Amino acid sequence: MLVLGGLGAAAVATSRATRIDASTLCATTGPSAVTVVLIDATDSISSVQRTAIINRLNKIDRQLKANERLAVFEISPGANPLTPAFSMCRPAAAAETSALTGNKKLASQKYDGTFKPAVAATLSSLLNKAPAAGSPIMEAIQAASVSTFQASDLPDEAPRRLVVVSDMLEHGPAGSQYGSLPDFDDYKASPQFARATSDLTDVDVIVLYLRRDDGASVQGINHIDFWARWFAAQGASDFKAIPVEG
Length: 246
Description:
Elements: H1 2-17, E1 33-40, H2 47-63, E2 68-75, E3 86-89, H3 104-126, H4 137-149, E4 160-166, E5 171-172, E6 175-176, H5 184-188, H6 191-196, E7 203-209, H7 221-232, E8 238-243
Parallel strand pairs: 1-2, 1-4, 4-7, 7-8
Antiparallel strand pairs: 2-3, 5-6
Protein name: VWFA domain-containing protein
Organism: Phenylobacterium ferrooxidans
């Protein structure tokens, strides 16, 4: 009886420790990690590029563990850069849920019936947007950093990852790379850099790099190096650019 009582007390303690917020699906103690995805659909995206992007983002989605937050933002002059199009913690799947201390059916409803369809709908919506006149990439990264990486419910030690789906051709309040690429050292000393700076300390950055036929004079190794230095100057711990097919 003492053993059973101890197990019962442990189960109650575990239940309390893992209480879930119904709207965010995050533990009330906060998410254990966060992945921010910024999607730049200000220029048209071909069907091949769209499929390649979704495949890569789905792979990133599958790497998420239970209680890790996924926040998806739109890069667009008309979007509110502080408000994500989607933000939710990845719930535990049925296979990860104990029949003794959890509810497998409820877990399946949350993961398969709520989380996965909501992610798919958000990606489909943002990747099928009409082109826009500007690409405020740096402004969007700054806003996402402030609203998500610095969120009050995110523990300081929680891993942070940023995924940017874009041609990385900045065209907004932080300047324009249409037609020419500025020297990074000169740009770093400019007021535009100061206005768009972000605290990306210990953030792992992945850029899904979209090729543009009309961006050939700027895009390439030097362009990627500019962005690698831009992220490093703000504390990012890692930077990787992955060319997207199409």
